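> call design_seq(struct)
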């Protein structure tokens, strides 16, 4: 493609050399957004360091050591320096390292980071997106606070960093570095770095591909992990006031590079690499999340033959697959329905047959009973007839006897009367 491009020289001023200025103006008026996640045990100096880094007092109340689990607390602030506005979100890991069983301590952190990616992805997938004024809450930098033990990393540190390294730019720092001796600090730093390497933990690499920052970033990388001291207290040093921590034996100056790496951290995090951290978050970590999520949802860039596969085609393929499955389910349900109906029909037929049999049986017994009753009736009628006949004969006999009796009496009377006369 680039072979088709021809270089032409301009014979006069056109004006597109103002494009970078236009970009700067647009970004300045829009404002910037930066989100920091502080991971570290309660009391390790997270809040103090944030206050020291941004030269202000953020609202924070000290957490207790008896939280039942790890929870993330995010607070957003609007800061302004010259004419640049920065929307800063600081996320604290409340209760980190305070539980006896720390196996799941990393989970809420991973979930929080993923939730911010998910929110951005959902906005991106909307038909009506408003990414221009979207409040981006994705974590741009994770400051991992290592306790100044002088020994080595704790397993909680290694496990947590390993779980986070593909999701966020990790910058490891040794907290409260004023509590560790200079010669021990050097050994501690190299021990930490070798442990990170041997455990395959990927920390944020300061970019060295851009000329303007390559040198400073290369020299600063050597000092990782930065050993920092935080304090918002101003102490008079010579004739100047400076942020420091005062001890009976002396003063630790926060911004003195001989005392600690606070300035290095501020340079790297804010002054030199803030934009790269934002960019890496979008192009590396978010991109990875987005890819995995879309693949999980069945989207692909290529078909099984490695040919390009557009979103439209993926959608169509998914739709057809879905419709096919739906059809299959429907067929299965229909078959099941037909089978059930047949089963029910057979059951009903069986019941009908039983009923018929019962009915026939009843009919038969009814007829038998009826016949018996009729026979009985006939018998009774016959008996009745006989009885009637007998009765009639008896009555006849009785009347004949009566007749004979009355004739006798008449004869006897006549006889009596004849004897009187
Ligand atoms: P968080 O719970 O991690 O936010 O810790 P805080 O910032 O509230 O600090 C807890 C305590 O540690 C406070 O008393 C701070 O003054 C102290 N502290 C903070 N930073 C440092 C430091 O760099 N060195 C020392 N020695 N103490 C510090």
């Amino acid at each position: 493609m680039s072979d088709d491009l021809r270089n032409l020289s301009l014979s006069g001023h056109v004006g597109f050399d103002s494009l970078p200025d236009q970009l700067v103006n647009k970004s300045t008026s829009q404002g910037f957004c930066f989100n920091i996640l502080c991971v570290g045990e309660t009391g390790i100096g997270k809040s103090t360091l944030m206050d020291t880094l941004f030269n202000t007092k953020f609202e924070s109340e000290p957490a207790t050591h008896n939280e039942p689990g790890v929870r993330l607390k995010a607070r957003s602030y609007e800061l302004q320096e010259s004419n640049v506005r920065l929307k800063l979100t600081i996320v604290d890991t409340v209760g980190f390292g305070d539980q006896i069983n720390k196996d799941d301590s990393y989970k809420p952190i991973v979930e929080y980071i993923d939730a911010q990616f998910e929110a951005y992805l959902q906005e991106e997938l909307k038909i009506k997106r408003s990414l221009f004024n979207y409040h981006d809450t994705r974590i741009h930098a994770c400051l991992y606070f290592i306790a100044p033990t002088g020994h080595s990393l704790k397993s909680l540190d290694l496990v947590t960093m390993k779980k986070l390294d593909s999701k966020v730019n990790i910058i490891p720092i040794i907290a409260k570095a004023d509590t560790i001796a200079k010669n021990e600090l050097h050994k501690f730093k190299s021990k930490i770095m070798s442990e990170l390497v041997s455990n395959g933990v990927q920390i944020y690499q300061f970019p060295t591909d851009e000329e303007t920052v390559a040198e400073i970033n290369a020299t600063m990388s050597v000092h990782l992990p930065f050993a920092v001291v935080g304090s918002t207290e101003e102490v008079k040093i010579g004739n100047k006031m400076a942020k420091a921590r005062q001890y009976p034996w002396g003063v630790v100056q926060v911004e003195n590079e001989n005392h600690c790496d606070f300035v290095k951290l501020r340079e790297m995090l804010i002054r030199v690499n803030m934009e790269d951290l934002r960019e890496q978050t979008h192009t590396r970590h978010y991109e990875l999340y987005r890819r995995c999520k879309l693949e999980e949802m069945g989207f692909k860039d290529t078909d099984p033959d490695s040919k390009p596969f557009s979103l439209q085609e993926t959608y169509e393929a998914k739709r057809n697959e879905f419709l096919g499955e739906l059809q299959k389910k429907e067929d299965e349900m229909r078959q099941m329905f037909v089978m059930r109906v047949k089963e029910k029909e057979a059951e009903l037929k069986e019941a009908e047959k039983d009923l018929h049999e019962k009915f026939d049986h009843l009919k038969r017994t009814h007829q038998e009973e009826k016949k018996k009753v009729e026979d009985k009736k006939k018998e009774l009628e016959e008996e009745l007839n006989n009885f009637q006949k007998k009765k009639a004969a008896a009555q006849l006999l009785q009347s004949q006897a009566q007749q004979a009796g009355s004739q006798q009496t008449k004869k006897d009377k006549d006889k009596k009367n004849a004897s009187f006369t």
